[in-house]
Recover the amino acids of this structure.
């Protein structure tokens, strides 16, 4: 925390500074990206320099700081901060995300019976080290994982690339290939009401859980961006937001 012994009060309220839990390499990389974009579009003036804009955007994405609070502390308008965030997310665009409750048909579409709250569903793939490789488009919370994967033709694309995936029990039944074909998606075994798991099935589930451990680390890196705690903007923008965070998360992890 930076010490400031000057006067903190004022007609517009108190102002504080805080430390972002990110590396300076990520900040500098994002600032260079913004400078390149401004040069490309021929923008000669912004209210703040690129480095400051990058810090404000990262504060919104990483710590879920309110644009209005950051705007007041930097002498700019709230809509300016929101515009900068969307602009940077557009430059970077290459589990269930909670959203605010909506009314009418939107309320029903985004409610997840599995998680018992409103949100958006995103499917992600990682490599064996837990590095995020791909995320799907954000869909209404009531969509099941299997339905989302089938809509993206995930198994066909994995098989065409000669790849396979190890998934949790929520994806049982996704791979409906024939008995002679190599499975594109491997899952564990589910116990039925009158059919408990055998010892071999339990050992298989345990082995798969050990292999999937790095995957959970990959999702954890994505969830560290607190803006995903509850998306306060239009859910249609969530796909671009998640894909931008995938880029930033990989940059931060690989530094």
């Amino acid at each position: 925390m930076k010490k400031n012994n000057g006067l903190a009060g004022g007609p517009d309220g108190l102002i504080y500074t805080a430390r972002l839990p990110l590396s300076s390499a990520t900040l500098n990389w994002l600032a260079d990206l913004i400078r390149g974009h401004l040069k490309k579009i021929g923008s000669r003036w912004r209210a703040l320099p690129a480095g400051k804009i990058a810090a404000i955007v990262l504060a919104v994405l990483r710590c879920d700081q309110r644009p209005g609070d950051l705007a007041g502390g930097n002498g700019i308008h709230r809509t300016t901060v929101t515009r900068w965030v969307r602009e940077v997310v557009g430059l970077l665009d290459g589990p269930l995300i909670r959203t605010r409750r909506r009314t009418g048909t939107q309320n029903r579409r985004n409610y997840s019976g599995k998680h018992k709250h409103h949100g958006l569903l995103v499917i992600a793939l990682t490599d064996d080290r837990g590095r995020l490789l791909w995320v799907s488009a954000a869909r209404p919370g009531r969509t099941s994982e299997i339905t989302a994967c089938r809509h993206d033709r995930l198994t066909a694309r994995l098989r065409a690339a000669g790849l396979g995936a190890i998934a949790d029990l929520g994806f049982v039944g996704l791979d409906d290939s024939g008995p002679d074909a190599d499975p594109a998606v491997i899952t564990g075994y589910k116990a039925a009401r009158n059919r408990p798991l055998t010892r071999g099935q339990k050992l298989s589930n345990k082995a798969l859980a050990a292999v999937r451990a790095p995957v959970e680390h990959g999702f954890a890196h994505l969830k560290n961006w607190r803006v995903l705690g509850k998306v306060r903007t239009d859910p249609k923008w969530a796909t671009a937001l998640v894909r931008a965070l995938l880029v930033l998360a990989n940059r931060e992890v690989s530094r």
Residues 24-92 form one domain.
